[in-house]
Amino acid sequence: MSDTSRTPSLTRRALKTTVTFLSTSMTAALAVGLVVAGSSLIADRAESVGLPDVAPPVTVTAKVLTREPGYDVIRSFVGQLEAAQQADLAFEAGGTLDEVLVEEGARVAQGEVLARMDTRVLTTERKAMQAARAALEAQLELAELTKTRQAALERQGFAATQRFDEARLSVIELTARIDETDARIAQIDVRLDKSIIRAPFDGRIGARMADLGQTLSAGTPVMSLLEDAVPRLRVGLPADMALDLQVGGAAEARFGTVRYAATLVHVRPDLDPRTRTRNAVFELTLEDGQTAPAFGQSGQITLTQSVQDAGAWVPLQALREGVNGSWTILTVDGENRAALEAVELLHANDARAFVRGSFDDQTQVIAAGPHRVVPGQAVETQE
Prior knowledge:
Blueprint: H1 3-49, E1 58-64, E2 71-82, E3 86-90, E4 95-100, E5 107-108, E6 113-117, H2 120-156, H3 161-193, E7 196-198, E8 203-208, E9 215-216, E10 221-226, E11 232-237, H4 239-244, E12 250-255, E13 258-267, E14 278-285, E15 298-307, E16 312-315, E17 320-321, E18 327-332, E19 338-348, E20 352-357, E21 364-368, E22 379-382
Parallel strand pairs: 1-22
Antiparallel strand pairs: 1-21, 2-11, 2-15, 3-10, 4-6, 4-9, 5-8, 6-7, 8-10, 11-14, 12-13, 12-15, 13-14, 16-20, 17-18, 18-19, 18-21, 19-20
C-alpha cells in the first residue's frame, strides 16, 4: 500500500482521539462546575438557615449532700417473751401432798401460802415433845427448890455438902434436857415449815405439776410461779452489735401490730454455743391500757446502731453501677456541668444509701435520672 492511502486512516484516528479528549474534558469541566455550584448552593442555604447553637442544658433533679460523721443502722431481731423471774416450786422435804390453795393463773403475793403437805405425824411428834418439856420444867422447879433447901441446911450445918452438890447437878442436868427438847422442837418446826410452799415473789401461778394425795420426794415440782409485773424479751444478738449496746438504752419491741417501749437490762458476756450470739434481755414498759403479751410469745426488737464513718446520704436513684462492683454518682460542678464522682457504698435502706467519697460538703448530686446525663454535659438543676 502507498503512503498516500495511509494518510486518511491516520487522520481519522487523530481526529477520533481529539474528539474523545475534548469530550472527556468537557465532562470533567461540567462535573467540577456542578460541584462548585452545589457547594455554593449549600453555603447559601446554610447562611440563610443559620448554624445551630450549643445543645441546651438538660433539666435534672438535684439534691444537696450534707457530710455527716456517721450513720445509724436500724435492725430487727426476733426474741421470746419471758417472765422477769420464774420458779418451779417444790417442798424441801418428802411427804404426801395434802392441800393446794391456788389455781393455775391465780395472782399471788410474796409470802402467801400456796400448798401444804400432810403434817399430822410431825404435829403429833411436836405435841409429845412439848409435853416432855413441860414435865422437865416441873422437875427443874422441884430441883431448884431442893437446891435452895440444901444450901440453907449446909450453911446451918444440918446437911452434908454432898447433898447440896447433888441438888445443884440435878438442876444443871434438867436444864440441859430442856434445852435439848427445845432444839428437837425447833427441828420439828423447821420440818413443818418445809412442808409449806410460800410464794417467793409476787406473780402468777403457771402450770400445776402434782395432785392431792401424791407422795413426793424432796425437790419434786408442785407448781410454777412467774413474775409478770415486768415482762422481758430475750433476744440473740450478733456479738459485735451486743458490744455496742449500753444497759438502760432504749429500743422498740413489736408483737404483731402492738408496739412497746423497751429498755436493755443486761447482756450476757458469753456466746450461745448453738447460735453464736449473745443473749440480751429487754424489759417492756406497759403504757396505760396496754396488756403484756403471753409468756413464750415471739416478738421483734428494733435496735439502732450508730456507725462512725463519715459520708453522706444520697437517693438510691442517684447511684450508677460501675465496673467490678464499683459505684459512681453524678455531681454538678461550678460550671453547671455533670461530673462523675466515684463513691464507696457503706449502707443502704429502702430509699437511700450512705456513701463515702471525695466530694465536698453541700455538693449537688443528680438525684434522679442520672442515666440521661453524661459527664461534661450542661445541666439545669431543680429540687
